[in-house]
Amino acid sequence: MKFNNFSKITSNILGSRLTGFFRDVLFANYLGANMLSDAFLFAYRLPNLFRRIFAEGAVNSVLIPMFINQQKENEHRAVEFFWSVFLIFLLLTSILSIFIFIFKFDVVSVLAPGFIDNKDQFIFAGQLLTITFPFLIFVTLSAILSSILNINGKFFLPSFLSVILNTCMILAIFLFKSNAHFAIAWSLIVAGAIQLSLLFINLKSLNLIWKLSINGIISNIQNLKIFLKRFSLSVFGSGIVQLNIFISMIFASLVGEGTISHLYYADRIIDLPFALVAVAISITLLPYLSKNILNEEKNADAFNQTIIFCLIFSIPSVVGLYYLSFDIVNILFGRGEFLSSDVLVTSNILIVYSLSLPGYMFAKICNQVFFSNERVDLPVFASIPTFLLNLILCFFLYQSLGAIGLAIASTTSVWLNVVIQIIFIKKFFFSFYQKINIIDYVKLIKILFCSFLMLVTIIFIENFFTINLIFDLFIKIFFGVLIYFLFLKLLRIDEIKLIYKSKKFN
């Protein structure tokens, strides 16, 4: 597997996250953390949660392995199968959007019960939801088209789509400051239409546009049945995972005003290192594992290198976010309508969330093992106890610990999911399990030591160097990261070469 693809994807994801951070800075500045911002973020996040279920989870995890297998036998038939799936999801997401439009206030009552007592907030959330939810149609179809581009080695445009989305939202805020909530909501639809159009143009240039026919659907009916069966299982699994976010949102609405916003902003920060590493790697890892399914030695080597690669990034991220959480939140969001009390609460949530980062990355990579072997049922079974634990902890912790309790519940459930997935790999793929290193303790100790040196560097600079908050943070991060990677190289962590070179798994 080539890491030059990883670098291309990462650069686009970095662009996406930087524009996303700028967007969130504007959110915090103009919307703050209050009753209306909670209502807006509820309406904004709901279609994105369904996107993760349909697009990022179920569709790609099932569609990519099936398409690759069919492509080996009959490329024309494989493309017909692909467009049949596209049609199914066009109908499915359209029906779901109509349902939300009709029952919007019922949805708000169930998923944000804390809004019921505030009539203005309740109505506001429902109105925004009718605008934002059709974005699900565009983003799901875009994910499907992106998957076939990824299969054909075209990673740039799919990973660039979020930049387009963020840019549209930023422009909406600047152009319609006085009515920012509704302007941002409508910008989702505009961005979705642009994304889908660009993908169609790109597919046409690759001669991947086939006219959908009844005969094409009929000839693929058996494959579609298999797809829908596996998709249903994957949706169930992904749905349970996303239910954790739904559960957090439900209890957050009950905690008090601003809690949904606080959790959102903390989650946005933690999402950066996760997206840059785990998501980017998984995009390239799944096709690689699927194509080399019969070569366990090769796939085991790829798995081992990927795990260490993720640890290289996740462990120092935990250390850095733990120590610098307040400064990071304050610099990013501490202005305008986002008060100092909001900064404090959000930074404390961020500390707890940071502890889940290695777990999230580990689980993402383990999932690719299951998906490449077309065992979409295993993540489903792994997610059930995860969901139950999160629900129980949220119920018992939200009243006493508030938003922090919800963050603890989320982090704990992530690590339970990791443990279960490792058990499943050992049980169902034992020969593969014997060839991999779940944890390379020697390299782990080296990474921990380098992370400690990074922390010492940050503390030293903090005690002897002060100009202003932004510059100080930049200097601490720059020299902390420099020392970290320098000692990684000195301690001969081989996987670090994957950053410096476009090296292949072999």
Point out poorly predicted stretches: 500-506
Write the element-wise H/E pattern from the N-terminal end onward: HHHHHHHHHHHHHHHHHHHH
Strand content: under 5%
Number of domains: 2
Question: What is the terminal separation in angstroms?
Answer: 8 Å
* Radius of gyration from the alpha-carbon trace, in angstroms: 23 Å
Determine the mean pLDDT: 82
Major sheet details: none
Structural class by helix and strand composition: mainly alpha
Number of strand segments: 0
Global shape: globular
Helix content: over 70%
Query: Helical segment tally?
Result: 20
Provide an overview of this structure:
Residues 500-506 have low confidence and may be disordered. The protein folds into two domains: 3-439, no CATH class; 440-506, no CATH class. It has helices at residues 3-31, 35-73, 75-102, 104-111, 119-132, 135-151, 156-175, 180-205, 214-219, 221-255, 259-291, 296-333, 340-354, 357-372, 377-401, 403-428, 430-435, 441-464, 469-490, 497-500. It contains 20 helices and no strands. Helix 13 packs parallel to helix 16 (403-428). The chain is 85% helix and 0% strand. By secondary structure, it is an all-alpha fold.
Summarize the helices and strands and which ones pair or pack.
Blueprint: H1 3-31, H2 35-73, H3 75-102, H4 104-111, H5 119-132, H6 135-151, H7 156-175, H8 180-205, H9 214-219, H10 221-255, H11 259-291, H12 296-333, H13 340-354, H14 357-372, H15 377-401, H16 403-428, H17 430-435, H18 441-464, H19 469-490, H20 497-500
Helix pairs in contact: 1-7, 1-11, 2-3, 2-5, 2-6, 2-10, 2-11, 3-6, 4-5, 5-8, 6-8, 7-8, 10-15, 10-16, 11-12, 11-13, 11-14, 12-13, 12-14, 12-18, 12-19, 13-16, 14-16, 15-16, 18-19
